[in-house]
Each structure stands twice: as C-alpha cells, then as structure tokens.
Amino acid sequence: LFGDEEHKVLILGLDNAGKTTILYQFTMKEVVHTSPTIGSNVEEIRWNRIRFVMWDLAGQESLRISWTSYYSSAEFLILVVDSMDRERVGLVKEELYRMLAHEDLRKASVLVLANKQDLKGAMSAAELSGLLNLTSIKSHRWQIQACCALTGDGLYQGLEWMSNHIQ
Ligand code: GDP
C-alpha cells in the first residue's frame, strides 16, 4: 500500500518556531529512517511504510522570496507555530494565506503544529485555530495539532494525520 511512493513535505514557519527541532525529532526516533546523503535541510522519514521527504526551509525567509521550485508537487505543508509568540500570530496568518493562494500549493494539505505546548501561557490549538481563522479554509485540507518539539509529544499524531491524508 503506497509502500515506495515518495511524498513531498515542506516545513515552514517563522524563525524560532521549532522547525529544526521538529525535523530532528522526526529523524532521531527509532521508528523513522533518515537518509544522510540527501542534504542537511532535507530528510527522508518512513512512517507506516510511507516515505515523507521533508524540506525544512528554515532561514530562507520561506515565502518572502520565490521558492517555486521547492513548492512544486508538495503534498503537505507543515506550518510550525511558536504558541508562545502572540505578537507574531498576524505574521503567521499572512504567511499561511499567502501559501494557500500559491498556485503550486493548491493541492497541498496543511498541518499546523501548535508547538511549545510545554510552556506556561502557550496558546492552545483551539485558540491558535481561531486566531488563524482555520475554519474559513475551504480550498485545502487542514489539521491543527498541539505539540512539544522538545519531547516529541503530538508530533506522531501529526504524522498519522498526514499518512491518512495521502491523496
Ligand atoms: P526554527 O528557527 O524554526 O528552526 O526553530 P528551532 O528548532 O531552532 O527552535 C528555536 C528555539 O525554540 C530553540 O531554542 C528550541 O530549543 C526551542 N524550542 C523548539 N521547540 C520547543 C518546544 O516545544 N518547547 C520549548 N520550550 N522550546 C522549544
């Protein structure tokens, strides 16, 4: 069942959101497999016999410059959000809707990771969902998942959702 198919995933989000930590968590677990030859910001992860090729666009100002070649054929976007960073939720929202409007991403499913749930005062997934107005999104499949990249809590529920939404 889809055993050898490759599924392209883009990990996006503002600086300091936890993108690198999340990619690290995904690749260091026993259940996953990483390919060291691909490159430092690209990792291959196997989950439920599905190969996710994850591109961490960290440090590239993600959508502010043209990353069209990276967008093309991406099936999933993982938007990592620092749930402590209330000041920049507006900026996150801007990025999100800019992504959703991008032609090359029209078929992509969106997983929002409400990261840093271990910190006191972090926005809950429900609160963040409201601030990002996720229920208004009709053009893409989406899901929001609370997580803590430091412990890995919630990350596998995210992967599980992705593996259930392979198109
Ligand atoms: P990136 O810029 O999006 O790649 O973010 P990083 O992965 O480099 O993380 C930015 C900072 O946030 C680092 O100091 C991480 O240790 C910290 N961080 C990431 N995830 C979590 C989390 O779930 N909880 C806490 N408390 N800190 C986190």
Shape: globular
- The quaternary organization reads as single chain
Low-confidence stretches: 30-40
Mean pLDDT: 84
Q: What is the terminal separation in angstroms?
A: 13 Å
Output the helix-strand order: EHEEHEHEHEH
Portion of residues within helices: 25-40%
Strand content: 15-25%
Strand segment count: 6
Rg to the nearest angstrom? 15 Å
Q: Main β-sheet, in a few words? A: 6 strands, mixed
The helix/strand class is alpha/beta
Q: What's the arrangement of strands in the largest beta sheet?
A: 2-3-1-4-5-6
Spell out which ligands are present. Answer: guanosine-5'-diphosphate
The tally of helices reads: 5
Describe the structure.
Belongs to the small GTPase superfamily. Arf family. InterPro entries: P-loop_NTPase, Small_GTP-bd, Small_GTPase_ARF, Small_GTPase_ARF/SAR. GTP binds at residues 13-20, 59, 115-118. The structure is a single chain. The protein is built from five helices and six strands; from the N terminus they run βαββαβαβαβα. The chain has helices at residues 19-28, 68-71, 89-101, 125-131, 155-164, and strands spanning 6-12, 42-47, 50-56, 76-82, 109-115, 142-146. α4 (125-131) links the parallel β5 (109-115) and β6 (142-146). The protein is globular, with a radius of gyration of 15 Å. The chain binds guanosine-5'-diphosphate. Residues 13, 15-21, 58, 80, 115-116, 118-119, 148-150 line the site of guanosine-5'-diphosphate (GDP).
Topology summary:
Elements: E1 6-12, H1 19-28, E2 42-47, E3 50-56, H2 68-71, E4 76-82, H3 89-101, E5 109-115, H4 125-131, E6 142-146, H5 155-164
Parallel strand pairs: 1-3, 1-4, 4-5, 5-6
Antiparallel strand pairs: 2-3
Bound molecules: guanosine-5'-diphosphate.
Residues 13, 15-21, 58, 80, 115-116, 118-119, 148-150 line the site of guanosine-5'-diphosphate (GDP).
